[in-house]
Every structure is written in C-alpha cells, then in structure tokens.
Specification:
Number of strands: 0
Radius of gyration: 25 Å
Strand content: under 5%
Largest sheet: none
Distance between the termini: 68 Å
Structural class: mainly alpha
Order of helices and strands: HHH
Length: 75
Amino acid sequence: MSEPAKKLARQAEERLDRVAKLAQQFDKITEGRFSDLVKDGRFADQVDHGVDRGRADARRAEQDARRQESGGSAA
C-alpha cells in the first residue's frame, strides 16, 4: 500500500474511532433510550400525512389544469 493510501486509511480509522466514541457518549447521555426506541421500531410507522396530502392535492390540481387545457372535464 502506498504512503498516501496508508495515510488516508489511518485518517478514516481515526474518524471512525471518534464517531464510535461519540455514539457511546450519546448512549450514555440518553441511557440507550433513543436507540432502543429506534431498534424497537418506534418511528417506523410514523408518516407525515399532511405532507402526503399536500402532495396529492398539488398533483390533483396539476392534473386538473392539464385536463382543462386539453379541453377535457376537470371533475
């Protein structure tokens, strides 16, 4: 392995070590509560229905506008 590659690998390893230490500190601070919630799927089924509804309304309005331009009925 060339010197630049070794240096890059060493830097990556140091960064990963820092990330691991931060993760441990985070778990210590939160006492594992947050990661336990994520692992248990606490946030898996949450959907922002307002955003979905807004997108559907915008899509529907766009389709209606295209129909009116082409001479079709909007409803």
